[in-house]
Amino acid sequence: MDIISNLLNGFSSIAGITPLLLIMVGVALGIMAGAMPGLSPSMGVALLVPFTYTMSPTYALILLVSIYIAANYGGSITAVTINAPGTPASVVTSFDGYPLTQQGKAGIGLGVSLVSSTIGGFIGTLMLIFFSASLAKIALNFHPAEYFALAIFGLTTVASLGGKNWVKAFIAAMFGLLLNMIGIDPISGVSRFTFGSPELYDGFALIPVLIGLFALSEIFFQLEKGDFKIKAASSIKSQWPSIRDYWKLRFTILRSSILGTIIGIFPGAGATIASFISYDVTKRISKHPETFGKGAPEGVSAAESANSSSVGGALVPLLTLGIPGSATTAVLIGALMIHDLVPGPRLFVNNPEIVYGLFASLLIANVVLLVFGLFGSKLWIKVTAIPKNILFPMIFAISVVGSFAVRYSFFDVISCFAFGVFGWILKRNNYPVAPIILGLVLGNIAETNFRRAVMMGGYDIFFTRPASLILLFIAAISFVIPFIRHKKTKINSSEKIS
Amino acid sequence: MKRYLYVFLFFMLLFFFSLEAQSSTKGKTDFPDKPIKIIVYTGPGGLIDVTSRKFAEVASRYTDATFVVENKPGAGGIVALKKVLKLPADGYTLYACTKSNISKFVETGGESYIDAMDWLALLMMDPECVITNKKNTIHTWDSILENAKKSQEKQIWLGPATGGLDHVTAMKIWDTYGIDEKWVPYSSGGKAVAALLGKQGVAYVGNPREILGNDDLMIAAVCSSERLPQFPNVPTFAELGGEGLETEVMWRGFAIKKGVPEEILAWYKDLFEKVTHDQSWRDIWEKGGVQVVYYGSDKFTQVVRNDERDFQYYLKKIDIVKSGESDFLTKLSSGTNLLILLCALAAMLIGLILLLIRLHKKEIVAQVIIIYFFLSLSILFYIISFSFPDVGEVGPSIVPRLWIFALIPLNIYLLIRTLRNKDHIEKQKGNVNQVLFFIAFLAVYLIAIIFLGYFISTFAFLFLGMYILGYKKIWKMLLISAIWIFISYLLFYRLLYVPLPAGQLIELIF
């Protein structure tokens, strides 16, 4: 019960007006950073790092992690309301969240995403507090071969995502993977497909591509339909989920949160894969898989609880090993270093008040997020009521800043717009665009770990290591099942006819 | 109402101009009369970022000048350096540099960058060391060496990027002891340390600071002429029979564009000396085994030149240049041939479209064009992949080809389905011309940003955009556009230091 007493000490160390105020400020700023396309959680945290110099280390961390978890949630607001995921992890949230908005049920989407997010964040933090040591062991024993297998498993979610359009979904995923090959090869340092242009040395930045493929292509799509003059006024009086609606989601949230935390611990994999996989799992288990992608609250819930709980997972390697599990935790390491703290197992011994203060503030921050979100949702649902002929030009203007701010490069702005046009063309021809993002996110993990694994043990290593073999086996099964099911329903229906 | 609005707009414009005028037209007074930018080539939180921010903090005790750290990550420092070189040599822009920059410059053939900079101050030297996992059976230097010489299999050494500083240090160590092992690179030092903790390799090459915080890690040997006071039990390579590795350090410092006036350089010299003698500055770094020094321009340039030579030698050594066989595909992947290929692909596309129209299959033209795009992209990338050098067992061309081999059959399958009219697409009733018009309008907007800057162009774009889409309340449109300009200026430009494009024409005028 050491943990409990330490945790109580942690709570007492952050009891007071200042820490609570910091959490509130952090949560508010985080929500804004997440909701602004182009400001990712890691940038939100990074922007605030300089302001934390003069604070005590505990206070600095409180502020930064509050921003971190709130930004992770904030990305879902724009995903639901205008189909512009603020973060790569909230791409999956838009699958069902945006259709809900289109049906005039934005309230359901926002409510479910908020509650799933905070409960997921809470569960992730609890797992971090109680199981960090054993989770760290899993992370350490994960060989490159297993990382590769995990990435392949993530890719197979495309099979069920695509549905009838599985060929096009896979083409999109492979295109994303190929796109990811552009830039300097992380293993050998050779520059690939850059055509001599230094802007391409680091490849395409994820955020501009994301904004282009989702937000901009959607605008073009609606411009074509020409219904932008109509005000979606009905959504102001949108219905909100009842307690009973939330209760129905309890297993989805619990399952996705556990999945999200576990996937979150693997450095590099993180929130995006977690949300894709848990969405996929939830869809497969569901009794109504056909409603997914058309506004199923379970879909929103699975995605959001997984990506929020992955925060807890990402902090495991940071605190126990001193290794960043995500881009944001990398920034947190820098913040710790500025305060002369070295993350790692010794931090638990030397500065337990900081570690447990951090745990306590994570728990409180999730509660504050819930409160802020409940009030805030009433406010940002109004976004859906802005006339589209005002909203669309605004989204373009914001996209310019958002894609520019990633690397301060105008090249990114142009590529954002190019991907917007490309995404519109693809959408008109029934290609899903989400697999491109999945490919871009997974490409690096899949490639580098594939090559590392082969360097360490040759090509047969994927089949001689049990964990990697099992993961690849699961991946193969999850790839094949949709096709078998599809065949079966075809046979069934033809039997009925005869 | 309208009148108030115009008054409001007028004052806002006045406000902008006064702000700008303040920062640009002040007469030449003492240096510095505006904030000094430190351009950092990593994202926030990286070690050089922390160094720069700490420097700014310590320096503020000795001068009234304000330092602003600006992160400009990309291409291992080249993006940041290009930015520095674009700005005038007025002393207001420092480039935070490390030894890794030099390896990047050499790797990408950018040696001219070294000449373009004045290597102003080397402020710290972080000795390189070999770090091992105590839980591995092989963890002392002697056991590593013994195992390396006896075992048939190559040892696995872990670290950051191939061809980077740590990799080159590893190669030097191997050369010194007459061994040759396998380097497995990770995307960051931290992830390589994780792999070491997971016993996936024998050794990790990095800096002493990296073992702090984890009791399982130890330093097997360090590149230093004497034992480090912070780690008295760690032997140096010299003690272990490895001469000539004393100078293997990771240095960090500042460079400035060449051509800065003498008196400004003297101002910096004074500041660097003061910061170097500051006790709190020394304390932070020395705790992690870093040597705090101050090398001025001459000595620093010497160091940079030496490193350049070293990197040139070792990078050539690992870059296994493609053997003499120049088959058809390799030839195709070079310069002009590629261009000819592109033209051929484009010509084929036009032919294809004409053929489809001829065959009265107009409705599938768009689908076929997309498939054709993916197919030609695959073919193009496949051909280019032959120009990559074969580095190591799994070279840079293997994985791209893997995706290409998946992409081609998928597209052919889809093509067959499409031609058989099995791929039905619901045609939505819509106005494509409206979209195309808007895309053209957006293109104009982007071009306008380049010349007129973000603020003016965006103001015009928002106003016209709303108008085109059918919103007709003029004063509301003006207000909305002005508010966004105001917010983006304050939030992004002033508070977050996002250097939104100011516009080439505007820059010419002011």
Please tell me about this protein's structure.
Chain A contains 21 helices and 2 strands. Chain A has one domain. Chain A has helices at residues 2-13, 17-35, 41-48, 57-82, 91-102, 106-140, 144-162, 166-180, 206-225, 243-248, 250-264, 270-285, 297-321, 327-338, 345-350, 352-380, 388-407, 410-428, 434-457, 461-464, 466-497, and strands at 183-184, 191-192. In chain A, a hairpin with a 6-residue loop joins strand 1 (183-184) and strand 2 (191-192). Chain A is globular and about 65 Å long. The termini of chain A are far apart. In chain A, strands 1-2 form a two-stranded antiparallel ribbon. Chain A is mainly alpha-helical and 498 residues long. A 6-stranded mixed β-sheet of chain B has the order 2-1-3-10-4-11, sandwiched between helices. Chain B has a 5-stranded mixed β-sheet with strand order 7-6-8-5-9. In chain B, helix 13 runs antiparallel to helix 14 (365-384), helix 14 (365-384) runs antiparallel to helix 15 (398-419) and helix 16 (432-468) packs across helix 17 (474-495). The longest helix of chain B is centred in the last third of the chain and has 37 residues, at 432-468. In chain B, strand 1 (36-40), helix 2 (47-59) and strand 2 form a beta-alpha-beta unit. In chain B, 54% of the residues lie in helices and 13% in strands. Chain B contains 18 helices and 11 strands. Chain B has helices spanning 2-24, 47-59, 78-86, 99-107, 112-116, 141-150, 165-177, 189-197, 262-277, 279-286, 297-318, 328-332, 335-358, 365-384, 398-419, 432-468, 474-495, 504-509, and strands at 36-40, 67-71, 93-98, 117-127, 129-133, 156-159, 182-185, 203-206, 217-222, 249-257, 291-295. With 510 residues, chain B is of the alpha/beta class. Chain B folds into 4 domains: 31-126 and 250-318, D-Maltodextrin-Binding Protein, domain 2 (3-Layer(aba) Sandwich); 129-247, D-Maltodextrin-Binding Protein, domain 2 (3-Layer(aba) Sandwich); 328-419; 432-509, no CATH class. Classes of the chains: A mainly alpha (498), B alpha/beta (510).
